[in-house]
Design goal:
10 strands, five-stranded antiparallel β-sheet, 5 helices, three-stranded antiparallel β-sheet, about 180 residues, about 30% strand, alpha+beta
Length: about 180
Amino acid sequence: MIEVHTLSRLSAAGCRSLKYEPETAVDVFGAGEEVVVRKTYQNRGRRLWWSFARRSRAQREHDHLVAIAAAGVPCLVPLGWSEWRHAGFVAYSTLWTRFVPDARPLKDVLKSLDPARDAEVRRRLAKAMGRLVALLHRRGILWFTPMPRNVMVLGDPRDARLLVADTPASVEVGRSVHGGAL
Protein backbone atom coordinates (compact mmCIF):
# COMPACT_ATOMS: atom_id res chain seq x y z
CA MET A 1 0.00 0.00 0.00
CA ILE A 2 1.29 3.46 -0.83
CA GLU A 3 2.10 5.54 2.26
CA VAL A 4 0.34 8.81 3.12
CA HIS A 5 3.62 10.74 3.53
CA THR A 6 4.71 9.52 0.08
CA LEU A 7 1.45 10.79 -1.43
CA SER A 8 1.90 14.16 0.26
CA ARG A 9 5.42 14.49 -1.14
CA LEU A 10 4.30 13.47 -4.65
CA SER A 11 1.34 15.88 -4.53
CA ALA A 12 3.67 18.73 -3.63
CA ALA A 13 5.74 17.91 -6.75
CA GLY A 14 2.73 18.61 -8.97
CA CYS A 15 -0.32 17.01 -10.53
CA ARG A 16 -1.67 16.84 -14.07
CA SER A 17 -4.92 15.37 -15.31
CA LEU A 18 -4.86 12.67 -18.03
CA LYS A 19 -8.58 11.98 -18.16
CA TYR A 20 -11.71 13.32 -16.59
CA GLU A 21 -15.15 11.79 -17.01
CA PRO A 22 -18.11 11.98 -14.62
CA GLU A 23 -17.34 8.56 -13.12
CA THR A 24 -13.56 8.30 -13.65
CA ALA A 25 -10.64 10.68 -13.22
CA VAL A 26 -7.00 9.83 -13.95
CA ASP A 27 -4.24 12.08 -12.57
CA VAL A 28 -0.45 11.87 -12.53
CA PHE A 29 1.47 12.94 -9.42
CA GLY A 30 5.17 13.52 -8.86
CA ALA A 31 8.22 14.39 -10.90
CA GLY A 32 11.45 12.84 -12.04
CA GLU A 33 11.94 9.17 -11.14
CA GLU A 34 9.04 9.01 -8.68
CA VAL A 35 5.76 9.42 -10.55
CA VAL A 36 2.46 7.67 -9.82
CA VAL A 37 -0.99 7.53 -11.40
CA ARG A 38 -4.19 7.92 -9.41
CA LYS A 39 -7.42 6.55 -10.88
CA THR A 40 -10.49 7.68 -8.97
CA TYR A 41 -13.83 5.98 -9.54
CA GLN A 42 -17.06 7.62 -8.42
CA ASN A 43 -20.15 5.47 -8.11
CA ARG A 44 -23.49 7.12 -8.76
CA GLY A 45 -26.98 5.85 -9.51
CA ARG A 46 -27.09 2.16 -10.35
CA ARG A 47 -23.35 1.71 -9.86
CA LEU A 48 -23.71 2.99 -6.32
CA TRP A 49 -26.38 0.38 -5.59
CA TRP A 50 -24.24 -2.37 -7.16
CA SER A 51 -21.39 -1.49 -4.80
CA PHE A 52 -23.25 -2.35 -1.60
CA ALA A 53 -21.20 -4.77 0.53
CA ARG A 54 -18.96 -5.62 -2.47
CA ARG A 55 -15.30 -4.97 -3.20
CA SER A 56 -14.71 -1.57 -4.77
CA ARG A 57 -13.59 -1.29 -8.39
CA ALA A 58 -10.20 0.01 -7.25
CA GLN A 59 -9.71 -2.97 -4.93
CA ARG A 60 -10.76 -5.47 -7.62
CA GLU A 61 -8.49 -3.86 -10.20
CA HIS A 62 -5.59 -3.75 -7.74
CA ASP A 63 -6.02 -7.44 -6.89
CA HIS A 64 -6.24 -8.37 -10.59
CA LEU A 65 -3.06 -6.42 -11.43
CA VAL A 66 -1.23 -8.10 -8.52
CA ALA A 67 -2.25 -11.54 -9.86
CA ILE A 68 -1.30 -10.63 -13.43
CA ALA A 69 2.10 -9.30 -12.33
CA ALA A 70 2.68 -12.44 -10.22
CA ALA A 71 1.94 -14.53 -13.31
CA GLY A 72 4.76 -12.75 -15.14
CA VAL A 73 2.54 -10.88 -17.59
CA PRO A 74 3.48 -7.25 -18.43
CA CYS A 75 1.10 -4.87 -16.64
CA LEU A 76 0.93 -1.63 -14.72
CA VAL A 77 2.54 -1.94 -11.28
CA PRO A 78 -0.15 -1.59 -8.61
CA LEU A 79 0.88 0.44 -5.57
CA GLY A 80 -2.31 0.46 -3.51
CA TRP A 81 -5.99 1.32 -3.33
CA SER A 82 -8.42 3.09 -1.04
CA GLU A 83 -12.16 3.58 -0.82
CA TRP A 84 -14.72 5.75 0.88
CA ARG A 85 -17.98 4.09 1.85
CA HIS A 86 -21.24 5.60 2.95
CA ALA A 87 -23.78 3.30 4.64
CA GLY A 88 -22.11 0.24 3.06
CA PHE A 89 -22.01 1.70 -0.46
CA VAL A 90 -18.71 2.57 -2.19
CA ALA A 91 -19.01 6.25 -3.06
CA TYR A 92 -15.39 6.66 -4.25
CA SER A 93 -12.49 4.30 -4.73
CA THR A 94 -8.94 5.07 -5.79
CA LEU A 95 -6.26 2.92 -7.43
CA TRP A 96 -2.58 3.94 -7.36
CA THR A 97 -0.17 2.56 -9.98
CA ARG A 98 3.39 3.32 -11.06
CA PHE A 99 3.54 5.75 -13.98
CA VAL A 100 4.99 4.24 -17.17
CA PRO A 101 6.77 6.90 -19.22
CA ASP A 102 6.40 6.72 -22.97
CA ALA A 103 3.24 4.57 -22.78
CA ARG A 104 -0.03 5.39 -24.53
CA PRO A 105 -3.38 3.61 -24.68
CA LEU A 106 -3.60 1.24 -27.64
CA LYS A 107 -6.91 2.90 -28.56
CA ASP A 108 -5.15 6.26 -29.04
CA VAL A 109 -2.29 4.69 -30.99
CA LEU A 110 -4.70 2.95 -33.38
CA LYS A 111 -6.58 6.23 -33.96
CA SER A 112 -3.32 7.97 -34.85
CA LEU A 113 -2.29 5.37 -37.45
CA ASP A 114 -3.22 5.74 -41.10
CA PRO A 115 -5.07 2.53 -42.14
CA ALA A 116 -3.39 2.42 -45.57
CA ARG A 117 0.10 3.64 -44.73
CA ASP A 118 0.45 1.91 -41.34
CA ALA A 119 -1.17 -1.47 -42.13
CA GLU A 120 1.97 -3.37 -41.08
CA VAL A 121 2.12 -1.60 -37.70
CA ARG A 122 -1.59 -2.33 -37.11
CA ARG A 123 -0.96 -6.00 -37.97
CA ARG A 124 1.96 -6.18 -35.50
CA LEU A 125 -0.15 -4.59 -32.77
CA ALA A 126 -3.01 -7.02 -33.42
CA LYS A 127 -0.62 -9.98 -33.20
CA ALA A 128 0.92 -8.57 -30.02
CA MET A 129 -2.56 -8.22 -28.50
CA GLY A 130 -3.27 -11.85 -29.35
CA ARG A 131 0.02 -12.93 -27.76
CA LEU A 132 -0.75 -10.90 -24.62
CA VAL A 133 -4.18 -12.53 -24.18
CA ALA A 134 -2.71 -15.98 -24.96
CA LEU A 135 -0.03 -15.44 -22.30
CA LEU A 136 -2.69 -14.54 -19.74
CA HIS A 137 -4.62 -17.70 -20.67
CA ARG A 138 -1.51 -19.89 -20.43
CA ARG A 139 -0.87 -18.45 -16.97
CA GLY A 140 -4.42 -19.29 -15.87
CA ILE A 141 -5.98 -15.82 -15.99
CA LEU A 142 -9.18 -14.98 -17.84
CA TRP A 143 -9.34 -11.26 -18.63
CA PHE A 144 -12.84 -10.21 -19.55
CA THR A 145 -12.02 -6.78 -21.02
CA PRO A 146 -9.13 -7.20 -23.51
CA MET A 147 -9.87 -4.16 -25.63
CA PRO A 148 -7.67 -1.35 -26.99
CA ARG A 149 -8.64 1.13 -24.27
CA ASN A 150 -7.40 -1.31 -21.57
CA VAL A 151 -3.93 -1.90 -23.03
CA MET A 152 -0.90 0.40 -23.17
CA VAL A 153 1.67 0.54 -25.98
CA LEU A 154 5.21 1.03 -24.73
CA GLY A 155 7.44 3.26 -26.83
CA ASP A 156 7.32 3.07 -30.61
CA PRO A 157 4.16 1.31 -31.88
CA ARG A 158 6.30 -0.46 -34.54
CA ASP A 159 7.92 -2.46 -31.70
CA ALA A 160 4.45 -3.67 -30.60
CA ARG A 161 5.28 -3.90 -26.88
CA LEU A 162 2.03 -4.04 -24.89
CA LEU A 163 1.04 -4.19 -21.23
CA VAL A 164 -2.23 -4.76 -19.40
CA ALA A 165 -3.49 -1.47 -17.97
CA ASP A 166 -7.13 -1.81 -16.93
CA THR A 167 -8.59 -4.97 -15.42
CA PRO A 168 -12.04 -4.33 -13.99
CA ALA A 169 -12.90 -8.00 -14.46
CA SER A 170 -10.64 -11.04 -14.55
CA VAL A 171 -10.54 -14.46 -12.93
CA GLU A 172 -7.66 -16.67 -11.86
CA VAL A 173 -8.42 -20.28 -12.68
CA GLY A 174 -5.13 -21.66 -11.36
CA ARG A 175 -4.31 -23.65 -14.47
CA SER A 176 -3.86 -22.99 -18.14
CA VAL A 177 -7.08 -22.05 -19.88
CA HIS A 178 -5.82 -24.06 -22.87
CA GLY A 179 -5.66 -27.21 -20.74
CA GLY A 180 -2.78 -28.71 -18.84
CA ALA A 181 -1.12 -27.83 -15.58
CA LEU A 182 0.78 -24.63 -14.90
